[in-house]
Amino acid sequence: MLSFKDVKANSFKGAYNAIYELIRAVYDLFNFLLKSDKLTDLQRNKFISILDKKSDQQQLEASLKLLSECLHKHHGKRVYILIDEYDTPLNQAYGNASYLTDLVGFMRNLFSSCLKGNNALARGLLTGILRVSNDSMLSGLNNLTTYTMLDKAYSSHFGFSDEEMQAMMHWWVNVA
């Protein structure tokens, strides 16, 4: 799981560095994999390269896929990748054409790498305020399903129930 909520840079370089640090922090949570006898030397070396901040952009774009493959190999189970607020960096870049163009390309490759054609992946989940559509930067993803607060099957998970509203109103009347 990783959240892009704090990636609020004013340039592509700033966003790239913030995302790199975010990915390094996630890798650090799983540094026990470096001792796994199930990883190849190549996987281990790539893992270390990311931790040591020696990877280039293409390696960073493949980093979440690499981590999922390492976890899959070590545990023997396919992984779930949860990405929260995927669109925060994109919202920040809005209005700056060159920044947005560079960031969209980077994010497209990062997400496509880990969410499409990844045999180590059981399921992936993206959350954000921008609607994910089949003609967006994530157009390369297949088996994409979008759920919103307007979907009846999930409406009980968004907002407040009638009972919660009644309790809040009762509290508010008694406090005021």
N- to C-terminal separation?
41 Å
Biggest sheet features: 3 strands, parallel
> In the residues, how many domains can be counted?
2
- Strand % is 5-15%
Label the overall shape: globular
Structural class by helix and strand composition? mainly alpha
Mean of residue pLDDT? 88
Measured as a percent range, the helix fraction is 40-55%
Oligomer: single chain
Order of helices and strands: EHHHHEHHEH
Uncertain runs are none
Strand arrangement, major sheet: 1-2-3
Number of strands: 3
Radius of gyration from CA coordinates: 19 Å
Q: Count helical runs.
A: 7
In short:
The chain is mainly α and 176 residues long.
Give an overview of the whole structure.
With 176 residues, this protein is mainly alpha-helical. It folds into two domains: 2-145, no CATH class; 151-176, no CATH class. It is 49% helix and 8% strand. The chain contains seven helices and three strands, in the order βααααβααβα. It has a three-stranded parallel sheet with strand order 1-2-3. Helix 2 crosses helix 4. The chain starts with a strand and ends with a helix. 23% of the residues are buried.
Q: What labels would you give this structure?
A:
176 residues, mainly alpha, three-stranded parallel sheet, globular
Helix and strand topology:
Elements: E1 2-3, H1 12-29, H2 41-51, H3 57-61, H4 63-75, E2 79-84, H5 88-93, H6 97-115, E3 121-126, H7 162-175
Parallel strand pairs: 1-2, 2-3
Helix pairs in contact: 2-4, 4-6
